[in-house]
């Protein structure tokens, strides 16, 4: 698979489409797929240009945003099982490549929508094919897709780990702590600050684990593990409704392996059990 970023005025039947509407993705529950063939869709009312985000062999993958009034389902798709849903609700079903494509589609779709018009003069932006970016003739400034860096960390203390839950999580779901990196901060400085702000504890032995794109709306999650140093849990962050220590053998519901949070938790448990 080759990642690309370009606009085409038209598409043919030998392509693949990812469809968004009001920040939700079209998903076929029977096929467990968010990628569609043009022949299965009604595209008569959908005009270009179309944003190509990847190429597999000779087949382009496009992301398209439609209006809620557009009737896009063709006769071969069942409206009872093919509908628009929140992307976050289906990430657990994706393998690594499917996660990458869906994440990229969501991020670039939002980027495309926000850069139709120039922020300075209001004229329609042009697309620079060589740079893969939007620009306006009023200043020739190039607008590339933006990615916002965040930290996400597992805090451990021997056989227990510190997890928190947002009020937006499913019932009994707990996850690792996360937050945006402020201007001027290193990732490690942001981690120390976020942990202190959210749960009032201090940490040490910060160790980088891995990273993951997170398209809500356009984050790059930098994953770390760190050791608990001192402090009692005090919730200082309005985003968290609870935070607790959990024994690694008695965990609540945790994020799936497709998320970096789930990977951090399972990686620590596996490493700890080897000791």
Secondary-structure element sequence?
EEEEEEHEEEEEEHEEEH
Spatial gap, N to C terminus: 39 Å
**Uncertain regions: pLDDT < 50 for 5+ in a row?**
none
Strand order of the largest sheet: 1-4-5-2-3-6
Tell me the strand percentage band: 35-45%
> Total domains, how many?
2
> Helix/strand-derived class?
alpha+beta
Counting DSSP E segments of at least 2 residues, the number of strands comes to: 15
The helix count comes to 3
Provide the CATH top-level class of the largest domain.
Alpha Beta
Task: Considering the chains and any ligands shown, give keywords for the structure.
single chain, 275 residues, alpha+beta, Nucleoside Triphosphate Pyrophosphohydrolase, 2 domains, six-stranded mixed β-sheet, 3 helices, 17% helix, globular
């Amino acid at each position: 698979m080759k990642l690309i970023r370009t606009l085409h005025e038209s598409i043919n039947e030998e392509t693949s489409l990812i469809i968004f509407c009001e920040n939700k993705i079209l998903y076929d529950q029977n096929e467990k797929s968010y990628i569609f063939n043009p022949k299965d869709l009604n595209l008569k009312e959908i005009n270009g240009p179309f944003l190509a985000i990847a190429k597999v062999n000779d087949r382009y993958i496009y992301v398209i945003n439609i209006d809620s009034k557009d009737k896009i389902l063709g006769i071969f798709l069942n409206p009872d099982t093919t509908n628009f849903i929140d992307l976050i609700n289906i990430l657990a079903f994706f393998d690594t490549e499917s996660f990458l494509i869906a994440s990229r589609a969501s991020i670039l779709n939002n980027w495309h929508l926000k850069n139709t018009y120039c922020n300075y003069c209001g004229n329609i932006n042009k697309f620079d094919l060589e740079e893969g970016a939007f620009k306006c003739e009023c200043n020739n400034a190039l607008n590339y897709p933006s990615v916002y860096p965040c930290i996400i960390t597992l805090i451990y203390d021997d056989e227990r780990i510190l997890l928190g839950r947002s009020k937006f999580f499913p019932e009994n779901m707990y996850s690792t702590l996360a937050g945006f990196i402020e201007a001027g901060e290193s990732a490690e400085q942001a981690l120390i600050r976020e942990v202190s702000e959210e749960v009032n504890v201090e940490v040490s032995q910060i160790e980088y684990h891995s990273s993951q794109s997170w398209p809500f709306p356009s984050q790059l999650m930098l994953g770390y593990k760190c050791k608990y140093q001192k402090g009692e849990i005090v919730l200082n962050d309005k985003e968290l409704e609870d935070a607790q220590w959990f024994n690694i053998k008695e965990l609540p519901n945790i994020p799936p392996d497709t998320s970096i949070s789930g990977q951090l938790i399972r990686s620590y448990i596996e490493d700890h059990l080897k000791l």
